[in-house]
């Protein structure tokens, strides 16, 4: 018995918080129906790291694959949601006792970024030793309900690089407020943006079994 689909995507709207210094999100009606006589046509500007999105390795490695080259199957399939709320950081020791149920996708509920319209003063980050654990368990995608797997001021991006070194792709800014720990089916498809470092996704989950 599978549950109903739950949207775990931040809403993109004028006012959603961008990464400090990055491109804000804007939507406007560029051509109004009153003028075109037939249709309203919108115009949008955004960072590729706005809202719920995925990182392509090109984001942190000039030689990394780009969004249009990503293996699309990574973004569809069984995922396990693990509640790690209340921690400053998450690493090997926090996850080793958890049974991932064979899921190739792990979504971490840190509850450290309650409001998409405010860039958080702080949020839970990943420790690099999470990389080898995820690889050992056959995990291909890590999702977080935070703006990044590294801290805001990190320049070395140790968590990004540890995940990259262990063949784990990254999904950021998911919304897990209505999602309890357990096994789910995830769909979080990137757009086919040629040459890109990241892409917005519409991420959804539905409970498996139970
Ligand atoms: N979501 C991004 C945040 C990020 O790293 C970032 C985004 C815009 C401008 C700078 C960034 N990072 C470091 O300077 C990430 O992949 O972690
Ligand atoms: Zn990102
Ligand atoms: Zn990232």
TrEMBL record:
Co-factor binding comment: Binds 2 zinc ions per subunit.
Q: Does the keyword Coiled coil apply?
A: no
> What cofactor does its activity depend on?
Zn(2+)
Key words, A-Z: Hydrolase, Metal-binding, Tryptophan catabolism, Zinc
Keyword set includes Metal-binding: yes
Superkingdom of this protein's organism: Bacteria
Reaction catalyzed = N-formyl-L-kynurenine + H2O = L-kynurenine + formate + H(+)
Residues at the catalytic site: 59 (proton donor/acceptor)
Please give the pathway this protein is involved in.
Amino-acid degradation; L-tryptophan degradation via kynurenine pathway; L-kynurenine from L-tryptophan: step 2/2
Enzyme Commission no: 3.5.1.9
> Which residues are involved in binding substrate?
19
* Assembly and oligomerization: Homodimer.
Q: What does this protein do?
A: Catalyzes the hydrolysis of N-formyl-L-kynurenine to L-kynurenine, the second step in the kynurenine pathway of tryptophan degradation.
> Family per UniProt?
Belongs to the Cyclase 1 superfamily. KynB family.
Q: Which HAMAP family match?
A: KynB
Instruction: Write down what this protein is called.
Output: Kynurenine formamidase
